[in-house]
Structures are given as C-alpha cells and as structure tokens.
Design a protein that fits this description.
By secondary structure, the chain is mostly helical. 69% of the residues lie in helices and 0% in strands. It folds into 2 domains: 89 residues, Rna Polymerase Sigma Factor, Chain: A; 68 residues, Arc Repressor Mutant, subunit A (Orthogonal Bundle).
Amino acid sequence: MRARLGLVNSAEPRQTEEELFWLVKLFEANVEAAFNVAYRLVWNRADAQDVVQNAFVKAARGHEQLRDATKARGWLLRITYREALMVLRTRRDVPTDPSDLPERTNLDLDPAGLVVRAEMADIIQGAIDRLPEALRTAFVLRDVEELPMHDVADVLDIGLSAAKMRVARARELLRTMLTGRI
C-alpha cells in the first residue's frame, strides 16, 4: 500500500499505518481546497493538478514538521500556495482564462432559474477573476475555502492585520464591481 501511494523511499523512514491513515484523511478533506487555491493562482487545470500533487507529496514527506495537527489544513494550503508561486516563477506565459472549469448543475431549479443562476455565477466569477492576485488569493482562502483569518495570514505568510485588510479590500472591490450587475 505504501508503494502504491508513492510514500516509500528507501532513503526516507517509512510511515506508520497511523501516519498513512492521517495523510489519506488530509488528502480527502483538502484536495478540493488545494486545487481551488492552486487554480486561482496558475489559471490552468493541468498546472493546478501538478501543484496539488507536488504539495501533497511535500506534505507526506514533511508531515513531521507539522507541530499542531489542528492546523493541518492551513499548513497544507500554505504548501500549495508556495508550490503555485513556484510554477508562476518558472512560467513566462500569461495565465489563461478559467474557461475549463466544469459547470455545476442543480436539477431542482426550473430552466429559467438555471439560466439566471448560471449568469450570476459567471458575473461573480468574472469579478473575482479581475481582482488583483494578492486580494483574490486572500478572498478565496477566506470566503471560498472558509479558512479562519489567522490561517489565511499563515498561508500567505503575512500578518493578521494585512490578511484582514486584503480580504476587506477584495470584498469592497467585488461590491463595487457587482453593484448594478446583480
């Protein structure tokens, strides 16, 4: 099982079954959040998937560095954030538009309601996409991924007041962009 998960390396100590269980639970609970953070930075599905994979490999190899298991989500998202930044540093092209995200459907709404909901989602997503990167990332971590503010600050490696300011500015910019549109 360890070899199947790619967690065995002859130069590294083997994980215990308890550690493997914890790592699998960490993955299951946070893979979507990690992908969202990565995608909002690199704007490419394949690159975001690579970022998430690299982040989980680093988390598996460095899990002993985590001192407080209750902060595992923030720790993992910080790794993901830094991996995404590494991709951006090595990539010279302009990020592409996020047009390859799957559309969510809700069968409970009538067709007109689905159209209205899809239009609103497009307008909101477009406004989020136009936020400056620093504000967008803070907003996504806090309001989309629902991280506590101190975890947002930790992931972005900034102070708590700076994190609060970025989220507040992002919300204000979104409010301005969306006024009269929805």
